[in-house]
From TrEMBL:
The lineage of its organism: Bacteria, Pseudomonadati, Pseudomonadota, Alphaproteobacteria, Rhodospirillales. It comes from Paramagnetospirillum caucaseum. This is Putative NADH-ubiquinone oxidoreductase. It holds the Pfam family NDUS4. Keywords: Electron transport, Membrane, Respiratory chain, Transit peptide, Transport, Ubiquinone. One of its GO terms (biological process) is electron transport chain.
Length: 102
């Protein structure tokens, strides 16, 4: 079976780096396509492994688990964060003001 190991992104409700960003997740790739239910129209699948998400503290623990279980795994490395340094006082700089534009 194919699994994916990744570090989830923070949600829109998180302002810092903590939260989901500390843990690593092992998630099974879908083995069967989703089919619409005839009565309700909801999407469903017979593949129950798509519901399994296992959290680990480190990437090495997740890789060791996948190797122990004999799973084919891919590790999705995260892109480095790019932050521009900002100062609150820059919003009120005199040389930044443009007169005549409203």
């Amino acid at each position: 079976m194919q699994v994916r190991i990744y570090r989830p992104a923070k949600t829109a409700m998180q302002s810092g780096r903590n939260g989901n960003a500390k843990s690593w997740v092992l998630e099974y790739e879908p083995a069967a396509p989703k089919q619409p239910d005839n009565l309700m129209g909801w999407l469903g699948s017979t593949d129950t492994t798509s519901q399994v998400r296992v959290k680990f503290a480190t990437m090495e623990e997740a890789v060791a688990f996948a190797k122990k279980k004999g799973l084919d795994y891919t590790v999705a490395v995260e892109n480095p964060r790019q932050q521009k340094p900002k100062n609150y006082s820059d919003n009120f700089r005199f040389d930044k003001l443009e007169f005549g534009r409203f």
